[in-house]
Design a protein that fits this description.
- By secondary structure, this protein is an alpha+beta fold.
- The protein has two domains: 3-87, Arc Repressor Mutant, subunit A; 91-258, GAF domain (Beta-Lactamase, 2-Layer Sandwich).
- Helix content is 47%, strand content 17%.
- The protein has helices spanning 3-10, 15-27, 38-45, 49-62, 78-90, 93-108, 150-156, 161-169, 182-195, 232-238, 241-258, and strands spanning 65-67, 74-76, 111-117, 122-128, 143-144, 198-201, 208-216, 222-231.
- The strands form two sheets. Strands 5-4-3-8-7-6 form a six-stranded antiparallel β-sheet, with helices on both faces. Strands 1-2 form a two-stranded antiparallel ribbon.
- Strand 7 and strand 8 form a beta hairpin.
- Helix 3 (38-45) packs across helix 4 (49-62) and helix 6 (93-108) packs antiparallel against helix 11 (241-258).
- The longest helix has 18 residues, at 241-258.
- The N and C termini lie far apart (63 Å).
Length: 270
Amino acid sequence: MSASDESSAKQPQGAPAALLNGLAILESFSIQHPALGVTEIAEIVGLHKSTVSRMLHGLAELGYVQRERDGGRYRLGLGVLELSAPLLADLDIRDAGLEYLERLTETTGETSALGVWSGTGTIVVDQVASPHQVRHTQPIGNRYNRWDSSSVRVMLAHQPLKTVHELLDAGHILLPEEQPSRQQMQAELEKIRVTGVAMNNGRTTPEEFGVAAVVRDLRGAATGCVILSAPSSRVELNDSAQAFQEAVRQTANDISARLGAPVVEENSRA
């Protein structure tokens, strides 16, 4: 049996074959190889070039692939995103986030939580408690609406400025006794947008350290946040503030990716 005969023998036959071969062609694209030619795809999936070319033409008509204008290479089309949209839209932030919270707590040894924005504050919807006897917790159902809370400021940083001012004017966001000016608050929110995290180092209670990073949904909208809480004395002793910021930011990015969010690059890690 020749090599081509052997390859053909391994391919599925009949109507299911067309479906499986079409899926194999779609799966040949990757982040590392977003654009592929007919010959490259044929080598990856083990099909004849004429078969691949014919199937690509059909997939292009359905919108699952698109041909580059300046060459004969193909890329995935928006039809693939439309096909996955019902699944991605149905993913709950709690379902998507729990395993990442568990990993965050395992890595840092501190309490991690998921919060969602209610419109006037952040509400905790899930928590993985620290194994330490001395710890800070984020009980499910807790609502935070203080400016000094990292989970509040990280969510405000991703609201329209007009909305932020309306919340402040209505008294929905509680300000500290020494109230910062609106200009100072705006500058702080801008810094949070740039760095990707909000910090609370003893601002709400002297012994609490907190850091939060935003979670985005399929549309790229800020839908919630990852929160890490720890005794500030332990954070200072282990000099772990910077490492915790990176861990929280990465966890939020992982959950966002699980929800199908587009990749958002922060301008700085300062």
